[in-house]
Amino acid sequence: MAVDPITSQVIQNRLSGIVQEMQNNIFRTGYSTIVRESQDASCMILDSEGEVVGEHVILPLHIAALPEVVKAIKKVYSGRIFPGDAFITNHPYVSGVTHSIDMAVVIPVFIGDALIAYCASIAHKSDLGGMVPGTGSGNARELFQEGIQYPPVKFMDQGKVVEEVEAILRANSRTPDVIMGDIRGQVGTGRLGEERLKEVVSRYGLEVVLETFSDLQLKVERRVRSVIASWNDGTFEAETWVDNDGIQLDVPIKYHVRIEKSGERILFDFSESAPQTLGPLNVRPPLVRGCCYYAMVAMIDPELPNNGGLARVIETKFRHGSVLDPIYPAPTNTYMASATAVTEAVLQAMNGLVPEKKIAGMGGVGGMVIGGKRKDGSSYVQYELIGAAYGARNGKDGVSGVSVLLDNAKTAPIEVLETEFPVRLRRFELITDSGGAGQYRGGLAVRREYEILTSKAQLTLRGGKHTEPAFGVDGGMPGRLGACIINPDSEGSRDLPSRFGGEELKEGDVLRIEKAGGGGLGPLSERAWEKLLGDVLDGYVSFQSAQSDYGADPEKLKSAIAAWNGEE
């Protein structure tokens, strides 16, 4: 049957609303700061085949992972999926999960005996075992060092918790109560989505809802193919780099894309990217496809539904054994640095297709973990995602101090960290002159400084942009490099690389994390005087940089500053 357009749109909005309600629920019930504060979690509704039909994306790569998860569950549990079940998995190779520190939870939705959909979520876990507190060591050399791997298994079987699975989960975490609290929150979130979806079916009828699932995907597919057909045919290439893989610190990693566009077809060829890495920079092909989905939405329309229809359009090509198609059990826990580099390469290559949406390089992504024992003997894992900076865009400066592109998480508040962990925040500020100069300035990076308040702790960093800066575009300058420094401004100061695991910290040590700045866009000489003056007054650009980088006349600048301060 054909569903009328108004009903179809109403149901689409209702599905998005359900997902948004699920996400609000998962954040409010989160036990860990990584879920509750940083909001490193996403929810969605998938049809019975595992294609996305309802989304309100928080972290875009999750939308490429969960369809793979559902398909893996269907394969393993064919004929054994029942009402009341809840499945979990964190396996990057078997299930397509982003990395093994993320746990997917999937709830099947039945109407009578018919399995019609899945309500699913994926959320970062503060600790699932492994070499270091927080699980994700930047020095891991194989998947088995990245915590325990769960293929698709039932956490709940027809409404009852599988006690053996819960026992294994608890036995393989340094913070079992936190982990179980987060997983139970995900199960409850899935049940909420199931209840809401059944209400939609009750109101509109099962046949109408299922037809709408199909219709929503078809509409997106047709629209995307139509837009692609309007672009110029041709071949477009670009490449980006990541500092190192955490093992070979002097070897940068290349990400290359070749886009072939013909008619309404578009192919993303990544086969010239670097070989798979010894360290955990590897990323699986489904997630690389997710990078392409993200770039296409950015180029076409930010309101474009990122559902199964978009997935039908994207064609990809990989070289097996490369960093973007690794051979099991290659480690994957710092995949986000690779995914961001892939996305930047794709966006740069697409400049030839949509030149009005140019953007410079980003300030990098990655997590930071401090873990150990409190003075009362209890274990803690302080897991943070710290924002960096966007590169400049056509007509706009980059955004400062925020997570970029696919890493759409939030920086945890100081008050929460100091309340829950043995640490004191000494500084949290934007870094002057960290944004790449240009007609449009790159966003500024942040500096965050911690004092350790317990006798012994371990530090793990999964960062980037310490040696490979955010690139500038069309004459814009690169952004400032990032840094990780132990006891800065002292005799015992130590500079650490962008990714490592298990560095020992003692009570009284000071840790300084400096993220990288975004790249600039356009010739420096064309920056508007009013913008440059505003940057100097706000402390974004120093007086010295305004002269040396932008060529500002020092007397004119002094006079303008004095006038602003009411001194003339």
Layout of SSEs?
Elements: H1 5-28, H2 33-36, E1 41-47, E2 52-55, H3 62-76, E3 86-89, E4 102-111, E5 114-124, E6 153-157, E7 160-161, H4 163-171, H5 176-204, H6 206-230, E8 234-242, E9 253-262, E10 265-269, H7 285-300, H8 308-313, E11 314-317, H9 335-349, E12 367-373, E13 379-385, E14 388-389, E15 400-402, H10 414-420, E16 423-430, E17 446-452, E18 456-462, E19 483-486, E20 494-496, E21 499-506, E22 510-514, H11 529-538, H12 543-548, H13 554-564
Parallel strand pairs: 10-11
Antiparallel strand pairs: 1-2, 1-5, 3-4, 3-6, 4-5, 6-7, 8-9, 9-10, 12-13, 12-18, 14-15, 16-17, 17-22, 18-21, 19-20, 19-22
Helix pairs in contact: 1-5, 3-7, 4-5, 5-6, 7-9
Describe it for me?
The chain is an alpha+beta fold. It has three domains: about 5-220, no CATH class; about 360-525, no CATH class; about 530-568, no CATH class. The chain is about 30% helix and about 25% strand. The protein is built from 13 helices and 22 strands. It has helices at about 5-30, 35, 60-75, 165-170, 175-205, 205-230, 285-300, 310-315, 335-350, 415-420, 530-540, 545-550, 555-565; strands spanning about 40-45, 50-55, 85-90, 100-110, 115-125, 155, 160, 235-240, 255-260, 265-270, 315, 365-375, 380-385, 390, 400, 425-430, 445-450, 455-460, 485, 495, 500-505, 510-515. Strands 2-1-5-4-3-6-7 form a seven-stranded antiparallel sheet, with helices on both faces. A five-stranded antiparallel sheet has the order 16-17-22-19-20, covered by helices on one side. Strands 8-9-10-11 form a four-stranded mixed sheet. Helix 4 (about 165-170) crosses helix 5 and helix 7 (about 285-300) crosses helix 9 (about 335-350). The relative contact order is 0.11. The model has no long low-confidence stretch (mean pLDDT about 95).
